[in-house]
Design a protein that fits this description.
By secondary structure, the protein is α+β, with helices and mostly antiparallel strands. A hairpin with a 2-residue loop joins strand 6 and strand 7. The radius of gyration is 18 Å and the shape is globular. The N and C termini lie far apart (38 Å).
Length: 183
């Protein structure tokens, strides 16, 4: 499994509405590419963007409350709706965003099934902006990917910073770069 954070928009702004429309397949996808939709702390998927915008307006200091990430399975892996929901929950927990508003959709418009996840970084109780995983988002997403593979019995990806040893996700030892004599 690959977990990644796509690059932001060119204009530096993010929109719950634009991203929500993309995730739900209303823009940028072929018909029928959305296989499953899930959400949390929202009324419906149809009102998700509006609800997220309203909550985000409670925090006037956060420049970008929108957080977007993707979980992608291998070509031969076909997760069920329940596995997709579980995978998103594991990732949200690793990112320390489990109590936030979130919308996700499983898409089949590429060779690999993948789920786009849109999260409102504004805490619904305190109205403070949450920095996902204390600003270690890529590390947390990679750890989440290994935990999802382990929990759902997918093939373990052997690259990156984490490995699965005896049923536990562990960080690989990082070798310090060797210094030359002139350094």
């Amino acid at each position: 499994m690959i977990a990644k954070i796509p690059p932001g928009r060119q204009d530096g702004k993010s929109s719950f509405r634009d991203l929500g429309n993309y995730i739900l397949g209303r823009t940028g996808h072929s018909a029928g590419s959305v296989l499953h939709v899930g959400f949390q702390n929202l009324t419906t998927d149809g009102t998700a963007a509006l609800e997220m915008e309203v909550l985000a307006s409670e925090n006037t200091r956060s420049r970008n409350p929108v957080f977007h990430f993707i979980l992608s399975w291998r070509e031969m892996e076909r997760p069920t709706s329940e596995q997709v929901d579980e995978a998103v929950q594991i990732a949200l927990k690793e990112l320390e965003l489990e109590g936030c508003q979130a919308l996700w959709a499983l898409q089949s418009d590429t060779e690999n099934l993948h789920v786009h996840v849109m999260v409102n970084r504004i805490d619904p109780e305190t109205y403070r902006a949450i920095q996902p995983a204390g600003n270690w988002t890529k590390k947390a997403l990679e750890r989440a990917a290994r935990k999802i593979e382990l929990a759902q019995d997918w093939q373990i990806e052997q690259t990156g910073r984490y490995d699965v040893v005896n049923g536990h996700v562990v960080e690989k030892e990082q070798k310090a770069p060797e210094l030359t004599q002139t350094a």
